[in-house]
Amino acid sequence: MFDWFGALVAEFGKEVALVTAVVYGGYKFRRIKSIIGGLVAAVGTVATFGALTVGALVLGMATGWVSVDVGQMIGDIVSGAGAAWDVAGKRAVDWLSTEVL
Fold first, then answer.
1. Which residues cross the membrane (predicted)?
2. Per-residue model confidence (pLDDT) at position 41
3. In this predicted structure, what is the pLDDT of residue 35?
4. Residue 55 has pLDDT above 80, yes or no
5. 3-state DSSP percent of the chain in helix, strand and coil, to 5
6. How far apart are CA 92 and CA 85, in angstroms?
7. What is each CA distance from 14 to 5, 18, 25, 37, 86, in whole angstroms?
8. Which long-range CB contacts under 8 A does 27-31 form with residues at least 24 apart?
9. What are the distances in angstroms from CA 32 to CA 36, 48, 71, 78, 93?
10. Is the pLDDT of residue 1 over 60?
11. Nearest to 99, CA basis, from 9, 31, 40, 50
12. Count of CB atoms situated within 10 Å of the CB of 86
């Protein structure tokens, strides 16, 4: 896993290899931090819209303006989340594990 570090030590010395490792680690950390920040922001946005939608439905059902089958609604939400995971979630995890880490 760290063969590159041994090659740098053999070629340039321990000091250069350590500086290179610290710079590379900082680059990866910043990249991971920005990707995680984007994912957290996206999840927060989706959760906000979901809470507003569910709140509007509950308010509409309580006032009698909207008639919704709650079981069907939850089933649709679960199947939609499963489809979203199949389309985007698996690819994002695969990309993160190969490109970032």
1. 6-27, 39-66
2. 86
3. 78
4. yes
5. 90, 0, 10
6. 9
7. 9, 6, 16, 34, 45
8. 28/100, 28/101, 31/100
9. 6, 24, 39, 29, 12
10. no
11. 31
12. 10
Provide the residue ranges of all domains of the chain, joining segments of one domain with +.
Answer: 1-35, 38-100
CA distances from residue 30 to 18, 37, 97 in whole angstroms, order as listed: 18, 10, 16
Work out the number of other CB atoms within 10 angstroms of the CB of residue 5.
15
Residue reference for tokens 């590159």: 4
Give me the count of residues in the chain.
101
Cα–Cα distance between 100 and 93 in angstroms, integer? 10
Is the separation of the CB atoms in 17 and 8 below 8 Å? yes
19, amino acid identity: V
- C-alpha to C-alpha distance for 43 and 41, rounded to whole angstroms: 5
Contact predicate 31/25, CB 8 Å:
no
- Tell the residue number behind the tokens 């939609």, with chain if given: 80
- Phi-psi sector, 64: left (phi>0), alpha (psi -120 to 50), beta: left
